[in-house]
Amino acid sequence: MKHLRLTSRALLAVPLVLVSCSSGSTGTGSVTTVGPAAAQTATVEMRNDLKYHPSTVKARVGKVTLTVSNTESVPHDLVFDDPSLGKITNLDGKESKLLVVTFAQAGTFRFACTIHPGMTGEVVVR
């Protein structure tokens, strides 16, 4: 009987282990830039959960100033798939930097943290 109880406990623990080991970025919401097309602004935070908050920035064609803020302690970066759009490297905990990006056309422009695979986001330009 004791053996069955241990097996049952072990089986109950398996889902907890699987849940706690899952990784990858899921969407954390979206924000729409504010300001005129030539001077739009938005803030993107990076946290210890290895996600961008929000993971989607909605913008118009034009110039966007992103305030990229690491609000916790794990270092991150933000690098666009298109290198011409720019990047922020080595953003330590409790640090913020500005990234000014000009979007000349509509589209979806993806970015990622090169330190943490699966930590992704995007700017959707209309």
What does this molecule look like?
With about 130 residues, the chain is α/β, with parallel strands linked by helices. It has one domain (about 25-125): Cupredoxins -  blue copper proteins (Immunoglobulin-like), CATH 2.60.40. The protein has one helix at about 1-20, and strands spanning about 30, 40-45, 50-55, 55-60, 60-70, 75-80, 85-90, 95-105, 105-110, 120-125. A 6-stranded mixed beta sheet has the order 1-4-10-9-6-7, with no helix packed on it. Strands 3-2-5-8 form a 4-stranded mixed beta sheet, with no helix packed on it. A hairpin with a 7-residue loop joins strand 9 (about 105-110) and strand 10. The longest helix has 19 residues, at about 1-20. The termini are far apart.
By DSSP (H or I, 4+ residues per run), the number of helices equals 1
Q: Kindly estimate the percentage of residues that lie in beta strands according to DSSP.
A: 35-45%
Distance from first to last alpha carbon: 65 Å
Give the integer mean of the pLDDT values: 86
Shape: globular
As a whole number of angstroms, the C-alpha radius of gyration is: 19 Å
- Low-confidence stretches are 6-25
The helix/strand class is alpha/beta
Strand tally, please?
A: 10
CATH third-tier fold name: Immunoglobulin-like
- How can the largest sheet be summarized? 6 strands, mixed
**Which range best describes the helical content: under 10%, 10-25%, 25-40%, 40-55%, 55-70% or over 70%?**
10-25%
The second-level CATH architecture is Sandwich
Strands in their spatial order, largest beta sheet:
1-4-10-9-6-7
